[in-house]
Specification:
- This protein is α+β, with helices and mostly antiparallel strands.
- The protein folds into 2 domains: 7-176, Sandwich (Jelly Rolls); 183-289, Homeodomain-like (Arc Repressor Mutant, subunit A, Orthogonal Bundle).
- It is 47% helix and 17% strand.
- It contains 12 helices and 10 strands.
- It has helices at 25-29, 99-105, 111-117, 135-147, 154-176, 183-199, 206-212, 217-228, 232-250, 255-261, 267-278, 282-289, and strands at 7-8, 20-24, 42-44, 47-55, 57-61, 64-68, 72-76, 81-84, 90-97, 126-128.
- Strands 1-3-8-5-6 form a 5-stranded mixed β-sheet, with no helix packed on it. A 5-stranded antiparallel β-sheet has the order 2-9-4-7-10.
- Strand 5 (57-61) and strand 6 form a beta hairpin.
- It comes from Winogradskyella flava.
Length: 290
Amino acid sequence: MNRDVPHIVFEPGEKENFGFDLVSIDFIQQQKGFNHNPEHPHQLRFYNLIFFTEGEGRHFIDFNWYPIEQNTLIYLTKDQINAFDFSTDFKGYCMLFTEDYFASSFSHLPKDFVFRLFNPQLFSPILQIPKNSDFNSYFNLLLSEFNNRLIFNQKSILESLFVILVSKAEYYKQNQTFHIKDSSNVQLFQKFTTLLENNFHKTRSAIFYASKLDITYKHLNEVSKNLVNKTAKKVIDDYVILQAKRNLINSTIKSTQLAYKLGFEDATNFTKYFKKHTGLTPKSLKKRYQ
């Protein structure tokens, strides 16, 4: 039996496929008996903003459970592992969109702002929208316009409303988390994470990434600590472990193969590294989530 975690691709309903879709959680719950069970871990190939409008419960994101309640907004970026838990009653909607749609919709905004939007390293994926805010009004307007098939220039209207909605959320995020005032640090951290994504299988040395950025190891550490409260080495290790976890539950790959894929000399070193950072062996982690 294939136990791989499903890769969920963007498949809009009856709407013209311009890269955006809006789906109720009730509809997603009904899919349990079809292609995949939404209560089982699955990996997105697109972006997803989940807005919970009623009830409470929890949601699984990259191997952690997060509490949700009325007016909770969840940010899910492409390739993240997530799952619903329908053991409690809640309602809401998923705003699904492709990477191309994301890039075009926010192309006129500052790059550091766009980078912050869906970056799980910088912020928690959970945002609680204040009950007395006008976020709900804008969301209901977005939902109404989305369901109006006869609307003129619907794509532009939806895009404008969606950008407003996300901008509103970012305003509330500033009040609930620390506000990054130095955009140059954000840009530097973005370059660091991009380098990490492209080179993590080659090296886990923070000194290597600092040299590639033409800064000192101390400077990279300071930026990392200021932004995410982690050393640069911790950022690297957390990223490698996350990729290892995703690979372990996403395929039938063996530890030896994964060790080489992630840049380890042999499976023994990889197993020691993995257990040091997770308290589990790769095999036990795989069994837990399958």
